[in-house]
TrEMBL record:
Organism in which the protein naturally occurs: Pontivivens marinum
Pfam family, one: SATase_N
One GO BP annotation of this record: cysteine biosynthetic process from serine
Keywords in alphabetical order: Acyltransferase, Amino-acid biosynthesis, Repeat, Transferase
Entry-linked NCBIfam families: EPS_EpsC
Catalytic activity, EC: 2.3.1.30
Record family assignment: Belongs to the transferase hexapeptide repeat family.
GO cellular component, one term: cytoplasm
Protein name: Serine acetyltransferase
Catalyzed reactions: L-serine + acetyl-CoA = O-acetyl-L-serine + CoA
Biochemical pathway: Amino-acid biosynthesis; L-cysteine biosynthesis; L-cysteine from L-serine: step 1/2
Residue span(s) of domain Serine acetyltransferase N-terminal: 16-120
Molecular functions per Gene Ontology: serine O-acetyltransferase activity
Length: 271
């Protein structure tokens, strides 16, 4: 097979990976001093999953666990569960679509800690479900230390997730986050006491959560709702509503059918 046909086959089979490689080559041309990093992280990697595991290995390694060992554990997780790679691709596309600061697919992989933290969590959850609890906690610890994002490995997170800025995110053990959810920095999905058991929020699909919002307790936030910045949500939210305040109350409709995609946080957008 010629090089041209090989490139065309790669693009048709994995357009996300093909585009990232093209963007990586352009990045090297634009900023030659990043060439070593970009070649090691992308251009010398075989697949998208290989690049993701390499990059996370770079970030999560420490004196406690070498980069090679972290990468080996990540690679084993992706080989055992190919859905992890597909979800990572969907997340990258979501970031590109919703974050106005993101102009290339390579940016989340290389530079965005919200994206990287979610992918590290996915590996931690894989370990958790395999009964490797202590290793899962290690990944949670390193993700919190490096990215400032603390997600319990027991939490369930869907795909198409965009966490913008991603500083001081906390998601508890029994929380469930649906598909196509967007959230800003300093969001807490937490409990309300020291009770064990199912004690954290259940966030529906397409929900938009503003900066500094806290959703507390085993409550449901309905699909395609909006939570205004700084709100404290203590009771269930119906689908397609906007809530705001401390404690939060309904202030109107969501304003559109996909608030997580529109990323409109203005209260007057609600009808």
């Amino acid at each position: 097979m010629s090089q041209l046909h090989a490139r065309e086959a790669t693009h048709s089979l994995d357009p996300v990976w093909s585009r990232i490689r093209e963007e990586a080559a352009a990045m090297v041309a634009d900023e030659p001093r990043l060439a070593g990093l970009v070649h090691a992280s992308v251009l010398n990697r075989r697949t998208f999953e290989d690049a993701l595991c390499y990059r996370l290995g770079q970030k999560l390694s420490s004196g406690e666990m070498t980069e090679g060992l972290v990468r080996e554990i990540l690679t084993e997780a992706h080989e055992a569960d190919p859905v992890l790679g597909q979800m990572a691709r969907t997340d990258a596309a979501a970031v590109l679509e919703r974050d106005p600061a993101c102009h290339r697919l390579i940016q989340p992989l290389m530079f965005f800690k919200g994206y990287q933290a979610v992918q590290a969590h996915r590996a931690a959850r894989h370990l958790w479900l395999q009964g490797r609890v202590d290793m899962a906690y290690f990944f949670q610890m390193r993700t919190s230390e490096i990215f400032g994002v603390d997600i319990h490995p027991g939490a369930q997170i869907g795909q198409g997730i965009m966490i913008d800025h991603a500083h001081s995110i906390v998601i508890g053990e029994t929380a469930i986050v649906g598909d196509n959810v967007s959230m800003l920095h300093s969001v807490t999905l937490g409990g309300t006491g020291k009770e064990d058991g199912d004690r954290h929020p259940k966030i529906g699909n397409g929900v938009l959560i503003g900066a500094g919002a806290a959703v507390l307790g085993n409550i449901t936030v309905g699909h395609c709702s909006r939570i205004a910045a700084g709100s404290v949500v203590l009771s269930a939210v119906e689908p397609c509503k906007t809530v705001a305040g401390v404690p939060a109350r309904v202030v109107g409709e969501a304003g559109c059918d996909q608030p997580a995609a529109s990323m409109n946080h203005l209260l007057n957008a609600a009808s």
